[in-house]
Amino acid sequence: MTTNEIFTRLNKVFRDVFDDDTIRVTPNTTADDIEDWDSLEHITLISAVEKEFGMKFKMGEISSMKNVGEMANIVAARAKR
């Protein structure tokens, strides 16, 4: 799976979770960049990403993610397995 494919799918998930078709995530996107991204929505988002990619994040991965790029890197690493 290419980085472009991952971000295309992540964009879809973010748009669905936040109900905003204008969202376009980049590797540097953080919760500060999306108005409704609070701690409750973060849980919903993580769950939606896990479902989209058929994987589960580890608790340490979730707590250490600083931006969408780090999320995409974890997804890419799992896709290579």
The overall strand count is 0
Q: What is the radius of gyration computed over CA atoms, rounded to a whole number of angstroms? A: 12 Å
Taking the sheet with the most strands, its summary is: none
- Mean pLDDT score, rounded? 94
Q: From N to C, what is the helix and strand string?
A: HHHH
Structure description:
Helices cover 60% and strands 0% of the residues. The chain has helices at 3-18, 39-53, 59-64, 68-79. The N and C termini lie close together (11 Å). Helix 1 packs across helix 2 (39-53) and helix 1 crosses helix 4 (68-79). With 81 residues, it is mostly helical. The longest helix is centred in the first third of the chain and has 16 residues, at 3-18.
Distinctive features:
single chain; 4 helices; 0% strand
Short précis:
This protein is mainly alpha-helical and 81 residues long. It contains 4 helices and no strands.
What are the SSEs and their pairings?
Blueprint: H1 3-18, H2 39-53, H3 59-64, H4 68-79
Helix pairs in contact: 1-2, 1-4
